Amino acid sequence: MDQKEILAELRKSIEEMDTELAEKSAKEAVNAGIDPLIAISDGLSKGMETMSDLFDEGEVFVPQLLIASEAFENAVSILTSTMSEEMKNSVSQGKILVHTVQGDIHDIGKNIVKTMLSASGFEVIDMGRDVPVEDVIEKAKECKVDIIAGSALMTTTMPSQRDIISLLKEEGIRDQFICMFGGAPVSEEWVEKIGADGYSESASGAVKKAKELMSKKRG
Ligand code: B12
Question: How far does residue 5's CA lie from ligand 1's centre (Å)?
Fold first, then answer.
């Protein structure tokens, strides 16, 4: 099988929620020497995009999304298992704290973003979901992260992203952290309105944005 066929199989495995196929094609990708990032962004993530669209159209439901995301994560751990040694020796792209905001337990998208960031060479600290604003700031200070990245999936929890910016300003440390936000209801306009630094509607876009903001920071 060539690269194109393996990528198509990875995509299909998520669209068909086939964990076995996802693992099998991830192993094939590793054996064929395909860059794990390409396998994730051009294979698995394409499948997840289809699933999200089908959900919006009422063709698939929550349990199917959960099975697809489990297949996604299993495949990613196979794809990235061979990377770890290489990654340890490479210069970190930056330290990034990811979380799902206070009051919000949706973490499928946040986990995909986390996976893509760490596969791209970022040092990722994952605080999980429903994380209080104060805890985010404390951890960011303690770990001296470069970027705070927060996911919100509900209109009712988006204000926590604004509260993070407000608290950073209150403490006089806003300029110490790059703040990036995302999640289905979040938009470029919202992120601009609350005075954050970056937004993306996708996980691969989040990596691109994080790299862009880091290179600005590093000059
Ligand atoms: C799966 C799901 C659940 C699962 C979550 C499982 C889990 N472990 O995450 C379960 C069943 C638990 C659940 C529960 C609830 N849910 Co729900 N859920 C969804 C659903 C169907 C899909 C979300 C999802 O995973 N999408 C797939 C991922 C891949 O997409 P994504 O998260 O958007 O992430 C992508 C981008 O946004 C971006 N991104 C994400 N995060 C970040 C972060 C950064 C920094 C960046 C740059 C980018 C980025 O990259 C990701 C990858 O491409 C949505 C519907 C929808 N269309 O969004 C409703 C939805 C979000 N849920 C909703 C609701 C209301 C609830 C409940 C309150 C239901 C209830 N009455 O109990 C509870 C929430 C409880 C709580 N306190 O959080 C509503 C929210 C409405 C609103 N107010 O805005 C939605 C929109 C459904 C609806 N149409 O009503 N839910």
Answer: 31
Same domain, 189 and 203: yes
Confidence of residue 197 (pLDDT cuts 50, 70, 90): very high
Q: Do both 73 and 124 map to the same domain?
A: no
Residues 131 and 189 in one domain: yes
Are both 34 and 8 inside the same structural domain? Answer: yes
Same domain, yes or no: 116 and 38 = no
**pLDDT (average), residues 167-176:** 98
Give CA torsion, residues 190, 183, 135, 105, to 10 deg.
140
Burial of 38 (0-12, 13-18, 19+ CB in 10 A): middle
- Closest residue CA from atom 44 of ligand 1: 182
- Specify the ligand 1 atom closest to the Cα of 184: 33
Q: Do 40 and 95 reside in the same domain of the chain? A: no
pLDDT at position 1 is: 85
- Its pTM stands at 0.87
Nearest to 95 by CA among 122, 73, 74: 122
* Ligand 1 probe mutation, 17, 57, 59, 153, most atoms within 8 A of CB: 153
